[in-house]
Each structure stands twice: as C-alpha cells, then as structure tokens.
Here is the input.
Amino acid sequence: MIVVNFSHPLSDNQLNVIAHLCNCQVAQVVRVLTHFEHSIEYAEQAARLVDGAGLAADTWQTERLVIVPPSLAAIACLLVAEVHGRAGYFVPIVRLSPRPNTVPPVFDVVEVLDLAAQREAARNRRR
Here is the structure.
C-alpha cells in the first residue's frame, strides 16, 4: 500500500498502526509538503498539491492507497475531490488525534476512514 502524506511526517509507530488498520503492509510513503497561499484560489493549489505526490495516472487508479490529509478542512475537502477524480473512487483517509497532556504534542493514528463506505451508507439515508 502507498501512504500519501499531506501532513506532518509519520513515525514508524504511526505507519505500523496504519498498516494494521488497513490489514496491508506499507510499501511506500510519499510525503507532500503542504502550504497554501490565501491570496491564490485553493482549487488550483489543491490540483498542484496532488501533482506534487508524483504518482502516475495508472498508480492513482490501480495501487492500494491511503491518504493522510492536511488539517485545514477546506484544503482537505478539495484534496479528497481531486484524488477521487484521479483515482476514480474515494481513497481512505487517516484520522490523527492529539494525545492528551503531551508536550510537545503527540498525534496518534485513531482510525482509517472508509469514505466509499460512508458514501454508500449515506445513499441509503436519502429520502
């Protein structure tokens, strides 16, 4: 599995938890430095951000992927849309959570969110 990380660097422990939750070995970690300029349209920057992963079109469509999104909600939403367009499906995302009472802050991998399953469940709630 390829972990595409648009957040802070991941520790070996965090990668082990991701592998365990996905029931798959991590074959590669692609770290993409994320910085957005507020004066430039975010959609344009999100496309460039995903380009920065350096993955070929067929890799987005054929390899098992998981995304660690940036923490800013608007950027994360655009990133999910951009990746969906390239992969053809909702790629699962990793949720990190700060561990209480740690200085400096420590972030734990809490879960891997299956966006495709969430979408299907939501379709069943349509009225």
Remarks:
- The beta strands are 2-5, 28-31, 65-68, 93-98, 107-113.
- Residues 46 and 67 are 14 Å apart (CA to CA).
- The longest strand covers residues 107-113.
